[in-house]
Amino acid sequence: MAMQCGIGPGCRFALAAALAVAALPMLAVGEARADFRVCNATQNLVGVGIGYRAKAGWVTEGWWHIEGSTCKTLIEGPLSSRFYYLYAEDAERGGRWDGPITMCVAEKEFKVAGVTDCVARGFQRAGFQEYDTGEQASWMVQLTDQPASGGDAETAGAPQQ
User: Fold this and answer.
1) pLDDT at residue 136 tops 80
2) Do residues 79 and 97 lie in contact, with contact meaning Cβ atoms separated by under 8 Å?
3) Hey, what's the signal peptide range on this chain (predicted)?
């Protein structure tokens, strides 16, 4: 049944409400995010560093502190590189998620250009795990619990929906 309406305030409200409801599906489509996210599936606080190739060369940056059972966006917007590198440390138990690719990190917040001569330049070396995003616009890595003995833990990377 169609609503008959003049120009009164009640009609303007009804029209505005109808338009708002009609716009909701468009807002949901527009909110699709493109970014690089890390989810911490452990119960502990985790510190995360990321490495990537920028136009000016290699860059590593960190630390993002990610509480247990939460996620954080490390890079906002569509990804500009195919390969990203991740290193993470369990702040409470001392374990780490690492890999074979050596890059530079620092004790405190950092953004380092270049991946060579880390120690000579006043940084530390850490082994980063490579993630091939396949040129997806967004990617998510999930850090999972490790055995109590420490060492490598499982990580999973996948295109973010």
Assistant:
1) yes
2) no
3) 1-34
